[in-house]
Design a protein that fits this description.
The chain is mainly beta. It folds into two domains: 82 residues, Elongation Factor Tu (Ef-tu), domain 3; 62 residues, SH3 type barrels (Roll). It is built from two helices and 13 strands. A seven-stranded antiparallel β-sheet has the order 4-3-7-1-2-6-5.
Length: 165
């Protein structure tokens, strides 16, 4: 599912002794993760998600087929994917991170900078990581720095800020 779906969350660990998990949601509205199921793990297992309560660092949740703390512990770090057709339609200038990864990045003069290798979010705006000649270039994913995203052409146009030495 990892190739066909969109990563909407990850299991951060177990919560309690009856198989509940601490779920980290990557959705704009965290509780919406339960609406996109069943969710699929990288290993192909499918889980129905039932949210139980807010917990520190995420949401408490029960997953179908998981009933013990040991089973929940074994899922720590598991990424959960939703089928793209179950997710809401995006507005203009909105993108799923997985759609950006792999896109070619060129500057405003047409020179190839590299390809998007990752999208990060450390609490503020998204940052795209561009792999370029063995180095990584981190660019804020803002309209000022990334004025054009053309998914159909597989290309991003970026206007990186000047670096003063």
């Amino acid at each position: 599912m990892a190739g066909d779906g969109i990563c909407v969350g990850a299991i951060a660990g177990s919560f309690g002794v009856r198989g509940e998990v601490r779920l980290k949601s990557f959705c704009a509205e965290p509780a919406a993760i339960a609406d996109y199921g069943p969710l699929t793990a990288e290993d192909g297992r499918s889980f129905k998600i039932t949210l139980t309560r807010p917990v520190a660092g995420g949401l408490g949740a029960r997953l179908s087929g998981i009933s013990t703390k040991e089973e929940a512990d074994a899922l720590k770090g598991t990424r959960l994917y939703a089928s793209r057709d179950r997710l809401p339609a995006l507005g203009d200038d909105e993108f799923y991170h997985s759609d950006l990864i792999g896109l070619e990045v060129r500057d405003t003069g047409g020179q190839l900078l590299g390809r998007v290798s990752a999208v990060h979010n450390y609490g503020a705006d998204d940052i795209i990581e561009v792999q370029t000649k063995g180095e990584s270039l981190l660019l804020p994913f803002t309209r000022a720095v990334v004025p054009t995203v053309d998914l159909a052409a597989g290309r991003i146009v970026a206007d990186p800020p000047e670096v003063s030495e």
